[in-house]
Each structure stands twice: as structure tokens, then as C-alpha cells.
Design brief:
Layout lengths: L7 E3 L14 H11 L6 E4 L11 H14 L5 E5 L5 H14 L3 E5 L10 H14 L4 E5 L1 H4 L5 H7 L5 E6 L4 H8 L8 E4 L5 H7 L3 E3 L7 H12 L3 H21 L1 H11 L16 H13 L4
Parallel strand pairs: 1-8, 2-3, 3-4, 4-5, 5-6, 6-7, 7-8
Organism: Caproicibacter fermentans
GO molecular function, one term: 4-hydroxy-tetrahydrodipicolinate synthase activity
Family: Belongs to the DapA family.
Length: about 300
């Protein structure tokens, strides 16, 4: 598979739902059309903030096809395809490829966590990459999987010709430093997975990020990198600090329902969450709105 460099910021795209919990495909498409004009480098469809575990296969592939249709031509389309079994992951990865995905982001299997050591993870990702029609990126998100890929296994996997990178959502800048000093392949794309460490990641030399905050603050996330690249380090740092309370709110305190409501507040179409997630109470909505006002987003 051909190598390509991944730079810039990507949202793990929210999935709007109607009040009856059906997927709101029109709002999904409208969001993409609007995001196309914000400086985003592309999109991750079916990420952790997409309510992916609650989607059927038919819904997942419908969203991928729609994203392919409505994204700007220069935007990279990544799709989250990781499932618990190797066979199911390979199947969904290749169906996503057929639907228009440029690359697959594959979650670490973690249900049988005690058995998912380095050898098991290496075997899993190697087989998926061997059988995938499109390039594969590792997705390390211990918050959800309780699995943390070790630097040594990431280094080994980085040399696979069809594994082109990793999104690390640990939020641990020390860990990212350790990954970079482990001896990754020179063409391996290490991506940051949370805006809370976007500035320090840039200082380490990381060139791309897939961050929930990009859904509701795409221009700001992109501008942090633009300022940094222009040598305006203090301005980049100040903007990152300004966005920090919003990121903490939509990735921690208020979760996906909060992220979707934040999108509503700034002019995107967040829609309803799908059960068992509950919409925000009015009290939480008011608190979140105040955070966004303080950060200058509304």
C-alpha cells in the first residue's frame, strides 16, 4: 500500500439522531458541507464520539457513503472499523473501503483484556492489515478499552507496510514521548487523540490530531497548528489554553451529549443522542453554554 502523510486536524464526527433515534442523515451531510470550509484536514467517521457502538452495520456504511459524497475532494476520509474479533474487523474494514474510506482506524480489542497482551495485539493488527484493502491506523484509547498498546508493540507494528499510523487518545504526553523514542518507522503517522495535549504534541513534532473538540471548534483547532507552524508559539499556546475548558467539558464532564449540544450552540446540527445516552439537563446545558461563551465560541 502507498504511504501518505497525515497532517492537520480531524473531528471524530458526531452522528446526529432524530427524536425517534433514527439517524439524521440530512444533518450529518449538512455538517460535512459546513466543516468543509473550516480548515479541517479530513474526517473520522465512526469514531468514539460518533456513538459507533450504537449503530448497525447498515447505518455505519450509510454514513461512510454519505461522507464520501459530501466531503471536499481534498479531505482525507478515515473510518473507525475496529470490532472485537479479527474476522468482524476485517469484514467491516473492507466494506468501509468499498464505501469510500481512504484509511481505517482500528480499535484495540479489549473485552478479554487479560489475554490481550503484546503478542495478541500484534497478531490482531498484523492480520487485519494483511487483509485490508486500505491502509490501517492503530487506535489506542485506554479510557474505553482498558488496553494501552506498549511502545514496543507499536514500534513493531509501525514497520508493517499497510499500518501507517496510530491515534493515541491516552492524553499522556510522557507516553507519546516514549512512543517517539522507541524507534517508530520514519513514515509512521503518530496522531494525538485529545485537544488537551495538542500544543505539547506539536512541540514534540506530531503533525496531526483526531480530536472531539474539532466538531465544535474546528477553526480554532486548526489555527493552533497554523500559529505554531508560523513560529507564533505563544499565540498558539494561548489559544490552546483558551480551548482547554471546552475540551474538558465535551470529552469529560458532559460527554457525547455535551459535545452534540456544543455543536448545536455554534451552528452545527448535533441532534439527539441515542439511548442509553441521555440528553443534557437544562442545568448542564446552561453550564456548557457559559463555558463556550467564556471561550469565545458563542
Amino acid at each position: 500500500m502507498a504511504y501518505f502523510e497525515i497532517t492537520g486536524v480531524f473531528p471524530p464526527v458526531i452522528t446526529p439522531f432524530h427524536e425517534d433515534e433514527s439517524v439524521d442523515y440530512d444533518s450529518f451531510a449538512a455538517n460535512l458541507e459546513k466543516w468543509n470550509r473550516t480548515g479541517l484536514a479530513g474526517y473520522l467517521i465512526l469514531g468514539s464520539n460518533s456513538e459507533t457502538p450504537y449503530l448497525t452495520e447498515e447505518e455505519k456504511l450509510g454514513l461512510v457513503r454519505l461522507a464520501k459524497q459530501h466531503k471536499a475532494q481534498d479531505k482525507l476520509l478515515m473510518v473507525g472499523t475496529g470490532l472485537e474479533s479479527t474476522e468482524a474487523t476485517v469484514r467491516l474494514t473492507n466494506l468501509a473501503a468499498d464505501a469510500g474510506a481512504d484509511a481505517a482506524l482500528v480499535l484495540t480489542p479489549g473485552f478479554y483484556g487479560a489475554a490481550m497482551g503484546d503478542d495478541a495485539q500484534y497478531a490482531f493488527f498484523t492480520e487485519v492489515a494483511d487483509r485490508s484493502k486500505i491502509p490501517v491506523l492503530l487506535y489506542n484509547v485506554p479510557k474505553f478499552t482498558h488496553i494501552n498498546l506498549t511502545p514496543s508493540v507499536v514500534s513493531r507494528l509501525s514497520r508493517h507496510p499497510n499500518i501507517i499510523g496510530m491515534k493515541d487518545s491516552s492524553g499522556d504526553i510522557g507516553r507519546m514521548t516514549a512512543l517517539m523514542t522507541e524507534g517508530l518507522d520514519s513514515e509512521f503517522n503518530l496522531l494525538v487523540g485529545t485537544a488537551s495535549v495538542w500544543y505539547p504534541a506539536l512541540a514534540l513534532g506530531i503533525r496531526g490530531g483526531v480530536m472531539a473538540l474539532c466538531n465544535c471548534a474546528p477553526r480554532e483547532c486548526a489555527e493552533i497548528q497554523t500559529l505554531f507552524d508560523a513560529g507564533k508559539y505563544q499565540e498558539a499556546l494561548e489559544l490552546n489554553k483558551k480551548m482547554f475548558p471546552v475540551n474538558a467539558a465535551v470529552t469529560g464532564a458532559f460527554g457525547v451529549p455535551g459535545l452534540k449540544y456544543a455543536c448545536d450552540l455554534v451552528g452545527y446540527k448535533g441532534g439527539c443522542p441515542r439511548k442509553p445516552l441521555l440528553p443534557l439537563t437544562q442545568e448542564k446545558k446552561d453550564r456548557l453554554e457559559q463555558i463556550l461563551k467564556s471561550s469565545g465560541l458563542v
